[in-house]
Design a protein that fits this description.
- The protein is α/β, with parallel strands linked by helices.
- The chain has a domain of 169 residues: Rossmann fold (3-Layer(aba) Sandwich), CATH 3.40.50.150.
- It is built from eight helices and seven strands, in the order αααβαβαββαβαββα.
- It has a seven-stranded mixed beta sheet, with helices on both faces.
- The chain starts with 23 loop residues before the first helix and ends in a 9-residue tail after the last helix.
Length: 252
C-alpha cells in the first residue's frame, strides 16, 4: 500500500493567512484534537487559498461551512476502521476525519497531482500517521484499497458517486456522502438507480444539529454482498445529453 510521498519544499510557502477565530463548537467537536484542527484550518486559510483549493471568499467560514461540517460526521465510523475519501481536494472530509479520529485509517483519492502535493505537505506539517494519499481517480484504486466505508463531499450526484464508490466497498459496506440541504430530493430521484447498482439500504441522516445551522445532511447507502458498477441512470443520461458532454469527476 503506498504511503504519502515527501512534500515538495514550496508546498507550504507562507502567504497572508485568512484564518477565522476558533468557535466554541470546535472545542466540543474535536475535543483534545482541537489544536491540530486549528493548525489544519490555518493551512486552509493560508496555502489552501494560495494554491486554489479553497476560494478566498471561504476564509471567514472555514470552520462552520467546511471543517465542522465534516467533523460532526466523524463519530459515525466504527472504531479502528478504514475509510476511503474520493476526490479529497483540500482534505474535506478525509483530513478532518483523520484529525478527529486518529483510530481511523484514511485513504485520500485525488486525481490532480497539484492537490496531492498540497495534501502530502499538509499531512507532513500536521504529523498525521493515519493517512495514505493516492494520486488517482476512483477507478484507478480498485483492487489497490478496499474498505467498509467510502466517503465524499461535493464531488458528484449520488448515482455517479455510487458507480465510482461501490467497487471500493467491502461486502455490506457503506457510502457516506456529505450533501447539501437537497439531499433527500436527490436521493428520491436516484434511489432506483442505486438499487440497480447494488444498494440494499438508503437514507439521509442529519449530523450536527444544535452545533451547526444548517446541520450536515449525509446520504448513507449500504451495499449488499457483491455490488457491481453499472450503467448511468436514465436521469443521468438525460442530463448528459442535455449538456452535450459526458459527466466527469469535478477534480478532473
Amino acid at each position: 500500500m503506498p504511503n504519502a510521498a515527501t512534500p515538495s519544499p514550496e508546498a507550504l510557502e507562507p502567504v497572508t493567512p485568512g484564518v477565522p477565530p476558533t468557535p466554541r463548537a470546535a472545542k466540543d467537536v474535536f475535543g483534545e484534537h482541537v489544536t491540530l484542527a486549528e493548525r489544519y484550518v490555518a493551512l486552509l486559510g493560508d496555502t489552501g487559498i494560495a494554491h486554489g483549493l479553497i476560494g478566498p471568499r471561504e476564509a471567514p467560514r472555514l470552520w462552520d461551512r467546511h471543517v465542522l461540517n465534516c467533523a460532526v460526521v466523524a463519530p459515525y465510523f466504527s472504531d479502528n476502521s478504514t475509510v476511503i475519501d474520493i476526490g479529497s481536494g483540500a482534505g474535506l472530509p478525509g483530513l478532518v476525519f483523520a484529525i478527529a479520529r486518529p483510530d481511523l485509517t484514511l485513504h485520500l483519492v485525488e486525481p490532480l497531482a497539484r492537490r496531492c502535493r498540497w495534501l502530502e505537505a499538509a499531512v507532513a506539517e500536521l504529523g498525521l500517521t493515519n493517512v495514505v494519499i493516492h494520486n488517482a481517480r476512483a477507478e484507478g484504486v480498485v483492487g489497490v484499497c478496499r474498505a467498509p466505508y467510502v466517503t465524499a463531499r461535493a464531488v458528484a450526484r449520488i448515482d455517479a458517486l455510487a458507480r465510482w464508490s461501490f467497487p471500493l466497498l467491502e461486502a455490506n459496506g457503506r457510502l457516506v456522502a456529505l450533501k447539501g440541504q437537497s439531499a433527500q430530493q436527490e436521493l428520491a430521484q436516484e434511489e432506483a438507480s442505486l438499487k440497480r447498482l447494488g444498494a440494499v439500504e438508503t437514507g439521509v441522516t442529519t449530523f450536527g444539529a444544535g452545533v451547526l445551522d444548517p446541520p450536515t445532511q449525509v446520504m448513507i447507502i449500504r451495499v449488499g454482498t457483491q455490488p457491481q458498477p453499472g450503467k448511468p441512470s436514465a436521469s443521468a443520461r438525460g442530463r448528459r445529453q442535455g449538456k452535450g458532454r459526458k459527466r466527469r469527476q469535478p477534480s478532473e
